[in-house]
Amino acid sequence: MQQGTLMRKVKSKSWKKQRYFKLQEDCMTIWYQSKRTGKTESAFSISDVETVREGHQSEVLQSVAEEFPPERCFTIVFYGRRGNLDLIAGSAEEAQCWVQGLRQLIEPRSFPLTFALVSRTWIRDWFQKADKNKDGRMNFKEVQRLLKMMNVGMNEDHALRLFQDADKSESGTLEGEEFVLFYKALTQREEVLSLFQEFSEDGKKLTLLELVDFLRQEQLEDEGTEELAMELIDKYEPSETARARHVLSADGFLMYLCSPEGSIFNPQHRALWQDMSQPLCHYFISSSHNTYLIEDQIRGQSSIEGYIRALKRGCRCLEVDCWDGPNGEPMVYHGHTFTSKIPFREVVSTLGKYAFKQGKTLLPHPLLSAEGSWSCWPPAVQDPRGQGPWRRWLAQGAFLSPTPQELKHKILLKGKKIGRLEDTLDGPGDEAPDVSDDDNGAEAEEERRRTKEGRTHGSALQKDKESLAQALSDCVIYCKNVPFRGFQEARSHSRPSEISSLSEAKARKLIRDEGNEFVRHNAWQLTRIYPSGMRTVSSNYSPQEMWNVGCQIVALNFQTAGTEMDLCDGLFSQNGCCGYVLKPPFMRDKETLFNPSDPSSWEGPGPITLTIQVISGQQLPKVANSKEGAIIDPLVRVEIYGVPADQAHQETKYIENNGFNPRWDETLQFQLHVPELALIRFVVEDYDKTSRNDFVGQFTLAFANIKPGYRHIHLLSKDGTSIPPSSLFVHIRITE
């Protein structure tokens, strides 16, 4: 990659500044400085970069498309909510040099290599930060400063002993491999070594049989254990000699425990593992509210980045609120507010690029889109009549729900519709659906009943016919939006092809008053829940109480970090991150007795006990904006989200002045009555006796995805992004 390249940094059509960009020698950091002043403006780590987009793939670069060709433009996209970096190179060749170079640096590798790379990078980064005079050596004073930077509060005498042991040259400084020795001594995992020696006869290695014993007794691996043991040795043992002898060293044992196979999250559940041939209403569906907004609900910015970010997180239900714009072109924005606007065409173009992709991973399962109301409609709309599985179901005389499997690569529109589904499908030149006269008559009568059901409803329908484009109406097939008038009314007159939207307050009242009826309703029809209009700052409600009654489309403000989005990410991080999670069997039965407010009314298998021993933490990050030299006092809180009877939390004591390798060795225990709906959230906080604790990191997962045994929990930031190598080490037991 070229170094010191002069490029334009673009923030808007009128703000384009020239900056020198340079990849540093560590191949992990890029800095840029002003051409005019020569001062370094900023720097970022390669590990912060999620992807690189070529061409005019941002609103900023689209605004300068007439001035600069796409071959010279690219966008650096960062993890989390950090803004993109839009750049214009001096030539197409320079742009390609940077694009391809960055992609090679951020390309995912196999986990063992990544783990080792993270460790080496972490060591190198800290060495460079602490080496104040940049002479490539560190004296003991610099090491003491380093320990504070690394969140370590260590006795000075002990630190000096480690320093002297690593100083093989007896020069009074550490350099190169000496610093690596110091780091290894600092990061010695006594709790892991003790566990290793418990199963190792000679204390130096685990034979194949000893590793099998560990996997069976502690990790509860009961199928193909010998084959698994061989795979782990081949994959994680760093010594070629040990691999040839089929043994695992202490280093290899630690590598395994830090790997996906040693994670608390069942690696088999990371892939698509659930049945995708059930009706849509049998799934929880990852859903966003006002997806186009990346800030607040009143004056916030509307951006295609909102759609890109949501889709990358596995979201499968988006909102596209469309309103008539100038010159007959629809615009997307939050109606009756001061939010900015984006052309509908840009939104459609973005969905075309990202709807069924997540990085290099394909997301083939259907995308649902909720829309607003407009009278104009782009002419290039494909006529949906007679396509897909719809006619087959109608021909059978039953309105059966389609499945995610059958709707692969389809986009479903949720919205208002003029008339009946049959009217859309039975267009000119199409054969009429093969149903009996009685069925046709009954459905026609039902439609007439609906249109005459009161003056307000009748006038609203007439208004729809006057203002809604017929072509748009025809595109609404499965998700016809209908008002909710009670569960009895829905059972008598609604169809599985319809959907109702409820505010969070209305949903809570129904949960409180008619919990079991709500669960039964959601076993055969889709329900969408949306945030209160009072949440103008884009805050979120708890999705768990809505999932407890089987609501499928629980729309959240994806732009706002917090516990609510942690729960959403935790639930949908399974099943290939496809955005669909199959509901438990008792929530797919229209005659179920289940009521989340009273689990005893349902004849489930009985409560289980979840026992979590919180053993240790590793290399926990500092609190954002903390004072220089401050060291955290970490504690771990385990939170259970589920039915009301299961809601609970417990926490460990705090460890003073040690964010580097704290030891808790505390056991927490929970009883779960409905584990099928439970989410477990592990939170690390910095204890503060005078004010609220500060957030350090978290990890959330569904109970169904927990692997028992000795496991690492790899922590995530408030934005939901990885913060390697920060982790917790725990021991999990599940008993009935």
Automatic annotation (TrEMBL):
Residues annotated as domain C2: 588-717
Known catalytic reactions: a 1,2-diacyl-sn-glycero-3-phospho-(1D-myo-inositol) + H2O = 1D-myo-inositol 1-phosphate + a 1,2-diacyl-sn-glycerol + H(+); a 1,2-diacyl-sn-glycero-3-phospho-(1D-myo-inositol-4,5-bisphosphate) + H2O = 1D-myo-inositol 1,4,5-trisphosphate + a 1,2-diacyl-sn-glycerol + H(+)
Pfam families in UniProt: C2 (PF00168), EF-hand_5 (PF13202), EF-hand_like (PF09279), PH (PF00169), PI-PLC-X (PF00388), PI-PLC-Y (PF00387)
Feature: compositional bias, Acidic residues: 424-445
Gene: Plcd4
Enzyme class: hydrolase
Annotated SMART domains: C2, EFh, PH, PLCXc, PLCYc
Membrane topology field: Peripheral membrane protein
Primary localization class, coarse: cytoplasm
Organism, scientific name: Oreocharis arfaki
Top-level taxonomic group: Eukaryota
Domain named PI-PLC Y-box: residues: 472-588
Ranges of Basic and acidic residues composition bias in the record: 446-464
One Gene Ontology biological process: intracellular signal transduction
Protein name: Phosphoinositide phospholipase C
EC number: 3.1.4.11
Domain PH: 1-107
Localization, UniProt: Cytoplasm; Endoplasmic reticulum; Membrane; Nucleus
UniProt GO molecular function: calcium ion binding; phosphatidylinositol-4,5-bisphosphate phospholipase C activity
Cofactor(s) of this protein: Ca(2+)
